[in-house]
Amino acid sequence: MNSPVPPGRPYRADEPGRADPRPRRRDRHGRGMRGPVAPPQVPLAVTRTDAFDDLVRDSVGRLERRWPQLSGVEFAVQEVPRAGSDEDDQADAVPLGRVAEAEDGRPDRIVVYRRPVEIRTRSRDERALLVHEVVVEQVAELLGLSPESVDPRYGQD
Predict the structure, then answer these.
(1) For residues 12 and 105, what is the distance between their CA atoms, to the nearest angstrom?
(2) What is the pTM of this model?
(3) Which of 19, 27, 134, 35 is nearest to 76 (CA)?
(4) Would you give the DSSP letter of residue 95?
(5) How far is residue 5's CA from residue 14's CA, in Å, rounded to a whole number?
(6) pLDDT band at 90 (very low <50, low <70, confident <90, very high)
(7) Are 113 and 85 in contact (CB under 8 A)?
(8) Measured between alpha carbons, how far is 67 from 151 in angstroms, rounded to an integer?
């Protein structure tokens, strides 16, 4: 017969008076741990940062097919522009991107700022259009061309 657990003491699994010597499962109902809410390939598992990176990558891919010299340009995404940066000509305007010319052995770099772009858009489609416009504008500035010559569809969408 099983001996009762004395009152005031915690019940331990390794006590000799326990009826079931098997270790307890993950939860008290024996169902175990729940799996992920969604598998990794489903959009629920993609963070906003990853989705934004994908938009920039898609835009750069479209432009690299037309402009092969962009393969040497480094593209980056930052959350927000640094405070007090000298690239701000207007105190009220928040830049959506910037170009950093090559120096000290570093390649040319184009940076797109994620939060300012997200704040100005309501949907993923609007965000994709704005990201592409920002990338086209920065590439045009880097190459010394007009945005329309970099991408003929610029401003039409």
Answers:
(1) 65
(2) 0.70
(3) 134
(4) P
(5) 12
(6) low
(7) no
(8) 10
